[in-house]
User: Fold these one by one.
Assistant:
Number 1:
Amino acid sequence: MTERITAPSLRSRKTRLGCDPIVMLTAYDSPGGRIADAAGVDAILVGDTVAHVVLNHSDTLHIDVGVMAHHIQAVARSDPRALVVGDMPWLSYHLSVEDAVQNAAALVRAGAGAVKLEGGLRRVAAVRAIIDAEIPVIGHLGLTPQSVHTLGTASKVQAKNEESAEALIKDAEALETAGISALVLEAVPDVVAARVTEALDVPTIGIGAGPHCDGQVIVFHDLLGLTHGRVPKFVRQYADLTSIAINAVSAWADDVRARKFPSDSESYHMPAPQT
Ligand code: KIV
């Protein structure tokens, strides 16, 4: 079996010579984990997007550590070679550093090999404390969906002027100094992502952040055409599994109604009488 991917091995992919592109996909259950791993991704992010794409909440604020641990366990039980990254949900690292460490540990006990959390300078103390507890941390800047009520902007794209781009770079550098293994950049202009990528020694992993990041992350359901509602501009759908699934279920329903399912070979039979 090829070696498991760890946070240090992911971090070491970026050298002075460049970075072998990092491929990260979200997954929320064992079938998703198996698919991601069989496709050879480097990291599986059990993201708090589970709130949207699986649980149909309007934002990511509706879930807690228990829900995240439940989904991380399901992915970890698929036994992937890829690094399992557990997303720290809203309020799990905002109250105190002790609380942040306990919550990060709960996600590690559920099967995560690293945790991800949103925010820059204000989260440095939590990041340091979690790393001090021997848990690798991945940062997340740009559009941070847990800040939905404070971002207060109609547009999702962040760091669109020089001042906010510089603030984002400062946040990224502070996280790097605190010891993060990688940084997710969400919904920022391509040139800003390129500047952050250039400024950091740790890899950047983009989503809606253009082609210059060291890697890319995408939501499983978006990639496979399982998303309900509007598909963001940065998503390329590689399959339409919703249509495939509806066609399969309709075909089965038609067969049931026409009494063509189950067939004799799909049925159990009484054992032949003993003679
Ligand atoms: O929760 C998540 O899936 C994420 C990705 C969108 C990066 O944070």
Number 2:
Amino acid sequence: VPAEACLTLDGFAVHDDFLTAAHSAALLEALQQRCRGGQFNAARIGAGAVTARHGELRGDSTCWLNAPFEACETDLLARLETLRSTLNELTLLGLFDTELHYAWYAPGMRYARHVDQPQGRDQRAVSFVLYLNAGWLPQHGGSLRLFLDSATVQDVAPLAGRLVYFLAEGREHEVLPAVRDRFSISGWFCRRE
Ligand code: OGA
Ligand code: MN
């Protein structure tokens, strides 16, 4: 079953090797360059004008993928456009736009159980996360935990090149703490306002 079809069957999909090792490494380098350039900010929770830092609930720092782009970023945007149109053919979600940011979780940082639709906004129809962590081992922790129903969780390790995506509506999930730095790109395919 192609990963795209899992989204409609199961509500989530894991696509390993969505990126080559070289592409993932180039994106990690681009992330670190933006970090050195002071483009990362401590993530906040909440919506609209009402946001706050709660590091114990959400400990990552983020950086929106804004122009000017590195070549590896332009390539990624093209790959995601292809995925967006494939998902539009398979679902009737009317995915119109893409938002994405880099995320860096320092060791011990987590993101407590949450949903990705800030209050009063339901444009984020599909959530996705692309991982940039070469050599990640089970003992490093840091899995994404998806709550599938009251009795079932699905843990997804943040392996380089792996893309995970899921229907955002009502889908609770959390990021477990890791013992090493954890790098990723989080994004959403959105409907029109
Ligand atoms: C998020 C998120 C999951 C992950 O950024 O909203 O839930 O595995 N990320 O990084
Ligand atoms: Mn989330």
Number 3:
Amino acid sequence: MRVALVQFNPHYMQVHANLDRVSRMIHGLEADLIVLPELFATGYCFHSSSDLSSVAEQQGSGPAIDFLRFHSESTGSTLVGGFPERDADAIYNSAAVATPDGRIDVYRKIHLFDREKLLFAPGNLGFPVFDVRDRQERPYRLGIMICFDWYFPEAARSLALQGADVIAHPANLVRKDCPRAMPIRALENHVFTVTANRTGRERYPDAELEFIGQSLICDPSGEVLAGAGRDEERILSADIDPHQSRHRQITVHNDLHLDRRPECYALGAAAPDDKRI
Ligand code: ACM
């Protein structure tokens, strides 16, 4: 199957222009899975809760969700992209998975970054893994994490332990370390990873963020199959066999999952004064 990602520079609060831009970029793209950045239709640096609220989408419908559903149904690709999701009084930093049968599944970002904590509710759906199919109807398992989740090895691990073959990773990265870390996340979990980051700069009223591009696709041995530059707007793609992730035998005597020793690992939250972990 072919996995692809879109790296581009969304403009703040210009939802329809951003959707048009992605639509033009993916026109004619033949891929089974297309991953778009975090908050790809709205931009990232929300100036206020009312700005965020004005672009948050109710479950199941709204411009970004409709866009993902339309492109999935009309091309047969599965699309993943980030959007602000409203549920009752809360707004989550979410990513939707749109499959060609019209289904929409959602992941809500667990590890909120910096000022996101002032605006979004922390994700409450765990790390779900979805059963999806490529365009030849071959099944594989798709996990989602969003941007800063990369900093917590537990995120990719939770997805891998539930059988994710491919982790789609919509991002708005500002820290330089993630492109170095993702090959390790792929290697230590023996999964494919597809990190779709954005480019450009955006302003809060009192500060500016610069996004680092460098989107990348990694294979289960930690090799980078495709990588983008810092500023370029482009599509990346790679042909993969997702089931390669299932061969977790490291030596005759070692299996990446079966050799885990959870009884030896610290569990749960560390006490605030416990520095041992
Ligand atoms: C981030 O999590 N958007 C840095």
Number 4:
Amino acid sequence: VLTEHIRFSEPDQNLLLLDQRYLPLREETFACRTTADIVYALQTMVVRGAPAIGVTAAYGCWLALREAGDGAGWRETLSTKLAEIENARPTAVNLRWAVRRMRAVWAALGEASAAALSARWLEEARTVHREDIAANEAMGRFGADLIEDGDTVLTHCNAGALATAGHGTAVGVIYSAWQQGKRIKVIADETRPFLQGARLTAYEVHKAGIPVTVACDNACALLMQKGLVQKVVVGADRIAANGDAANKIGTFGVALIAKEFGVPFYVAAPVSTIDPETPTGDLIPIEDRTPREVTHVGDHQITPQDVPVYNFAFDVTPNRLIAGIITDQGVLRPPYTEAIAKLFKK
Ligand code: MRU
């Protein structure tokens, strides 16, 4: 299982990211040194997946501080840079969560010098990084109980090690079940248009030695009708206070089809992906990405010139379609409004 795809180097003062745009064909590293590099890496999806975005943002705050220096006005410069990181992508709440966490550390230090903040922030970013791996392993343990020996598990997009600091959320559940000796198989939905399933989930699950088959997104109904899928486990970018869950475009369709065929549909996400400030899913901002991802495959245009396209990057699965939300604190069951309120009271 991948662990080296997000690496921070203090001596080199950079964040090294395995560039997910080129996988599985090329394993290239993208080095971030500035706030602009971080924003670029987030927006072009050099790094993607809600928890991985959060970890990147935490180190990004440290790079922003280094860039802001310690001369007059460094605090104002830094605040502007933090806002740029926080707003790089709108849907995954982990981005806002991570930057707010770094801001809270800064606020707690009061009028501290840039040097004092730098030391404290590096520690905090490393903690965010470490905690994410631990959360995924905990989620994996809770989720693995829901997977039976012999199951074929369908997943959409990539909620694996690559989408996190390590182990993964939805795919982490699959890894944990596999490590417990359950003989499972995986179906990775292709996930148009960025192909996170075909390129990234297939890459890392195959590397882990687990049998994986790639299917076109539109094959889901047929596969379930044929009885080829026993469970669905997907990740989330933001879960509203009522349990509605935003995830990669196409997830909602998978959930509807799973309902039709009586296949349990689970969402796996750390508590940092739950947004108690957003009451219902319709209030979750949906990223609208460049048409080029749809009009082109690589450098080849596949749609007629001047025909508009939709490229919404996420959709929201209503809570009624979700059999359970697997978190690092345990599995939440409906009614989710109560379960989530109880979790945050703790
Ligand atoms: O656009 P992406 O690739 O960042 O979208 C990622 C997803 O939708 C994942 O399923 C989600 O972030 C959960 S990752 C553990």
